[in-house]
Specification:
Helix content: under 10%
Strand content: 35-45%
Order of helices and strands: EEEEEEEEEEEHEEEEEEEEEEEEEEE
Shape: globular
Distance between the termini: 59 Å
Number of strands: 26
Structural class: mainly beta
Length: 333
């Protein structure tokens, strides 16, 4: 079965490589890190090795702008973000030939922070007939995926009293049922759930007010509780999907840039983030009858290793593994 490969360059040309003779029908990749935000693809029949000269190039498109956004793919459309002509844009392309289908203005262009990195950082999220996108300055828009028509928008700083991270907002919106969830930060609650069709606020995480960084939320079902796992420079936490209540929180100090999305698998939450000093720490979080409790305790810690940035080509991250036991039924009386 023919297999297609998509590759992206940081300053935005985008190309499609073909492993065989014709385009294959591919599974949707509707958001950052795929359908479940775990980086796992359901595609089968992939080549174990590419041809000596590489797969033939099917098409290539340029002029999408500057930025660091990845792509979302649903049906016959590819969605991404880029800065050009003084603004940031959401762009939809045709999968078959790479030609633009529509382009919609998202907000300001530019590079927050120092050193400067131009362009949007987040990846668009496609949910049914809607696309959610956020720019580096915290401008969130909901668009029709067929036409690019804007349905509603929010400003993280103006509407939520959000806190701009040094290098701008990089989190990709999380769509879940009737709500879309984002992390603007702010004293009234770091995480905000909005009505997917209107943008009206459903809840804010009033008990959880950490300053945001660059990691994206992860949806997980732990025990009996559906929740969003959030990683910040101060901690990792579980937020109830139903009402935004804080379910559990484990202190975890991050430095410089807390970027990677958490991973949940088989009762464990795995997190990692880079810093000038690195350590590996494992923590365990005990669960209550209705889900994880708020208390946590260190289980194991390793020695620290200092990274020499002048010599290192990559940094050693700080890794934390959090064990979350599934809730057990209460004993009968």
């Amino acid at each position: 079965m023919p297999t297609t490969y998509l590759f992206i360059r940081p300053l935005y040309s985008l190309g499609l490589l073909l492993a065989c003779s014709a385009l294959a029908a591919a599974s949707d990749w509707p958001q950052w890190r795929g359908p479940n935000r775990d980086g796992v693809s359901s595609e089968t029949g992939l080549l174990k090795a590419w041809p000596a000269g590489g797969p033939p190039l099917v098409w290539k498109t340029a002029g999408l702008g500057e930025g660091y956004s990845s792509v979302s793919i649903v049906g016959d459309r590819i969605f991404t973000l880029g800065d050009r002509n003084g603004s940031s844009f959401v762009v939809a392309l045709n999968v078959g030939d790479g030609k633009p289908v529509w382009s919609a203005k998202l907000g300001r262009a530019g590079a927050p922070g120092s050193p400067e990195f131009e362009g949007p950082r987040a990846t668009p999220t496609v949910d049914g007939d809607l696309v959610y996108a956020v720019g580096q300055w915290g401008e969130l828009a909901c668009l029709e995926n067929a036409t690019g028509k804007e349905l509603w928008r929010k400003d993280y700083l103006k509407d939520f009293g959000g806190q701009l991270p040094n290098w701008g907002f990089a989190e990709s919106p999380l769509a879940d049922g009737d709500q879309v969830v984002v992390t603007p930060g702010g004293a009234q609650g770091a995480v905000v759930a909005l009505n997917r069709k209107t943008g009206a606020v459903i809840w804010r995480s009033k008990e959880f007010t950490d300053s945001p960084h660059y990691a994206s939320l992860l949806l997980a079902q732990i025990g009996a509780v559906r929740q969003y796992i959030e990683l910040t420079p101060a901690s990792v936490a579980g937020i109830a999907a139903a009402d935004g209540k804080l379910l559990w929180r484990a202190p975890r100090r991050g430095q410089t840039a807390v970027v990677p999305t958490p991973i949940y698998h088989d009762g464990f939450v795995y997190i990692t983030a880079g810093s000038l000093r690195s350590a590996i720490t494992f923590m365990a979080i005990q669960t209550a009858r209705d889900g994880p409790a708020r208390t946590s305790r260190p289980a194991r810690s390793s020695g620290r290793k200092k990274t020499n940035w002048a010599k290192a080509r990559c940094f050693m991250p700080t890794a934390i593994c959090i064990y979350v036991r599934k809730a057990r039924a209460a004993p009968s009386r």
